[in-house]
């Protein structure tokens, strides 16, 4: 197989790089994307720029989000932001939905599962293109088919991932309310608990950590009373303890934070790493949260985070969002410890794993700003990274 040779650092260069990594020929990519071979060649040579439709087709054929094929503050951000008015319209009218067709449950389930996977992999452009229509259809169907409630909750959560990460906090709060209301329609204690996990975003955004800790601990107590002892139960309960540990640490309650961490460790030993009601949990997720916890506690608690970062890396099979988050947290720990180059290495790793997640993360921006202030000499790569983040 010929390896793409291109000095093009625009979309064409990225297309060539991903195609080569996928071990695809230009002809195979052209057939999979339903575009001409000539088009692929011109794109990779840099003599032509892809339209949105062509970019989407190629990204789908390569199995990546379109943002992976764009460099810098390109138009993919606009495409995500352009979706927000449509999401607002859908949720504003959810109590009085329009009439329209509703597909069979298996078809809807397939689409929702795909949306959940895109959320976990931080593929927000793809999400933004399908969520308004999918949510509208599920809202219509819920009027007569209560079994659609869990699917609608998962779709609201996917929409919240976009709203929260792109700074639409009012929309995020409304989506979380809708998640809670819809979860009540299903007789499922674990579904309700999963919404409590997401609801913590509201407390993070408003820095009301004590209230967030109380809310999570109330949900933990309620869930324990349900009598379930399945692996899924342990996975959901463990995720609540993980998040409670971080919230308690942010609020300065060190003993509570360590207690929740210990319980999360114990529960993590009872289940394999996996996705439990939309949240990754297991031994690897606990380890990632230990880095987050150490950063939240700060000062003398940073050493465990640094040791984990020096000796361990998240497995490639974990969701991209969680792996990227690990390196963003690690970058902050390293920066606070004075290891500037190692901090930048972690941010570069986060970008490789989940570009959109990294670009929208406030800590990535703050840390790059700090590195720019502290630099002692010109660093073209650091400046380029700052430009990509939109940091001046």
Description of the molecule:
The protein is mostly helical and 392 residues long. Among the domains are: 1-64, lambda repressor-like DNA-binding domains (434 Repressor (Amino-terminal Domain), Orthogonal Bundle); 75-187, no CATH class. The chain is built from 20 helices and 2 strands. The chain has helices spanning 11-21, 26-33, 37-45, 52-62, 76-92, 105-120, 124-142, 149-165, 169-183, 189-206, 209-224, 231-250, 254-268, 283-297, 302-311, 320-336, 340-353, 355-360, 362-374, 380-389, and strands spanning 274-276, 279-281. The protein has a two-stranded antiparallel sheet with strand order 1-2. A hairpin with a 2-residue loop joins β1 (274-276) and β2. α15 (302-311) crosses α16 (320-336) and α16 packs antiparallel against α17 (340-353). The relative contact order is 0.06.
The largest sheet, given as strand count, sense and whether it forms a barrel, is:
2 strands, antiparallel
Helical residues, percent: over 70%
What fraction of the residues are assigned to beta strands by DSSP?
A: under 5%
Distance between the termini: 42 Å
Major sheet strand order: 1-2
Unreliable runs: 1-7
Q: Write down the oligomeric state.
A: single chain
Please give the count of helices. 20
Helix and strand composition category:
mainly alpha
Strand/helix succession: HHHHHHHHHHHHHEEHHHHHHH
């Amino acid at each position: 197989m010929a390896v793409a040779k291109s000095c093009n650092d625009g979309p064409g260069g990225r297309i060539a790089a991903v195609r080569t990594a996928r071990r695809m020929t230009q002809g195979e990519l052209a057939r999979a994307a339903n575009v001409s071979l000539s088009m692929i060649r011109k794109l990779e040579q840099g003599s032509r720029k892809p339209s949105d439709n062509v970019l989407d087709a190629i990204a789908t054929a390569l199995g990546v989000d379109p943002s992976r094929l764009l460099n810098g503050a390109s138009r993919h951000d606009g495409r995500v932001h352009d979706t927000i008015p449509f999401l607002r319209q859908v949720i504003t009218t959810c109590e009085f939905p329009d009439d329209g067709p509703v597909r069979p449950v298996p078809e809807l389930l397939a689409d929702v599962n795909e949306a959940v996977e895109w959320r976990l992999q931080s593929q927000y452009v793809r999400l933004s293109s399908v969520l308004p229509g999918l949510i509208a259809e599920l809202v219509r169907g819920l009027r007569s088919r209560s079994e659609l409630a869990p699917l609608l909750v998962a779709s609201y959560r996917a929409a919240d991932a976009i709203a929260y990460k792109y700074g639409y906090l009012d929309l995020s709060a409304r989506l979380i309310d809708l998640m809670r209301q819809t979860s009540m329609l299903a007789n499922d204690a674990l579904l309700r608990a999963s919404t409590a996990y997401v609801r913590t975003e509201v407390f993070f955004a408003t820095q009301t950590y004590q209230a967030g800790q109380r809310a999570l601990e109330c949900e933990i107590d309620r869930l324990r009373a349900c009598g379930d002892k399945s692996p899924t139960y342990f996975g959901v309960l463990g995720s609540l303890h993980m998040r409670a540990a971080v919230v308690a640490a942010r609020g300065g309650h060190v003993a509570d934070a360590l207690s929740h961490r210990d319980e999360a460790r114990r529960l993590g030993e009872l289940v394999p790493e996996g996705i439990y009601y939309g949240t990754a949990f297991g031994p690897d997720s606990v380890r990632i949260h230990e880095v987050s916890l150490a950063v939240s506690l700060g000062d003398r608690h940073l050493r465990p985070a640094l040791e984990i970062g020096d000796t361990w890396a998240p497995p490639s099979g974990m969701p991209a969002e969680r792996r990227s988050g690990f390196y963003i947290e690690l970058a902050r720990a390293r920066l606070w410890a004075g290891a500037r180059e190692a901090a930048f290495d972690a941010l570069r790793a986060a970008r490789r794993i989940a570009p959109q997640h990294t670009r929208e993360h406030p800590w990535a921006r703050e840390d790059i700003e700090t590195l720019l202030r502290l630099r002692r000499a010109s660093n073209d790569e650091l400046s380029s990274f700052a430009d990509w983040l939109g940091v001046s």
